[in-house]
Amino acid sequence: MNIPLDFAWLEATMMAAVRITAFLMIAPPFSYGGIPTRVKAMLGVGLSLAVGSAVAPGYQNLDTGAFIGSLVLQVVTGALLGFLVLICFSAVQAAGNLIDVFGGFQLAQAFDPQAMVNGAQFTRLFQMTALALLFASGGYQLIIAGIVGSFRVIPVDGVFALAAPAEMMVRAVGQMFLSAVQIAGPLVIVLFLADAGLGLITRVAPALNAFAMGFPLKIIITLLLVTSVYLALPGVVNALTGDASQLLRGVR
């Protein structure tokens, strides 16, 4: 019994599996610690089998040294693409962190080992909400489509210039901070004005000890106004998903 094997297809599929698995280990929502590593690896292998026929044409078999070097390059490529997606969705977490700082919740911060997030209540709430919205809205499919589309830009036997991804990372970090300020900006301004008002009251009537009342007052204001920010998260996550998908297709 003779079973022919296409070694070019096998090698190309293996390299695609390495890139996709490295991507899934870092990119949200798949990077969440509650998803077992075995499941991520199985998903990476399954996706690589689906794209194997698309990445194999034109692929030439490599010798052992070149093959190992190419595998390392695929790990770096997948990790870099996953980090770009992580930067995009860190804007939601950063917005929650701003609300925690200005709302007085930062003293109750704790480390979440599943999400690998160190923050207070709204930091973790916004991060968990973003993950839930990615799964509920089907946004994870766009992220998967982005990593699959990256094989057209960076073939498994190709290389990319480091200058372009580095420039995109710098631009993505700047956009992350801008998005975080845009998400939490209105509430942060209100809390800042509350601090300024309490400072003026303390100057006018020092005996009132207005800052002692400031902590419960700011917490009440935060809880009353954060609903408007929270209701805007679906649109924010949708926009960030589109940005992440474009970043994955734009790395050259």
UniProtKB/TrEMBL annotation:
GO cellular component, one term: plasma membrane
Transmembrane segments annotated in the record for this chain: 6-27, 39-59, 65-89, 131-154, 174-194, 215-233
Keyword terms: Cell membrane, Cell projection, Cilium, Flagellum, Membrane, Transmembrane, Transmembrane helix
Keyword Transmembrane helix applies: yes
One Pfam family hit: Bac_export_1
UniProt key word Cell membrane: yes
Swiss-Prot/TrEMBL GO biological process terms: protein targeting
Subcellular location: Cell membrane
UniProt topology in membrane: Multi-pass membrane protein
Family, as annotated: Belongs to the FliR/MopE/SpaR family.
Name of the protein described by the UniProt record: Flagellar biosynthetic protein FliR
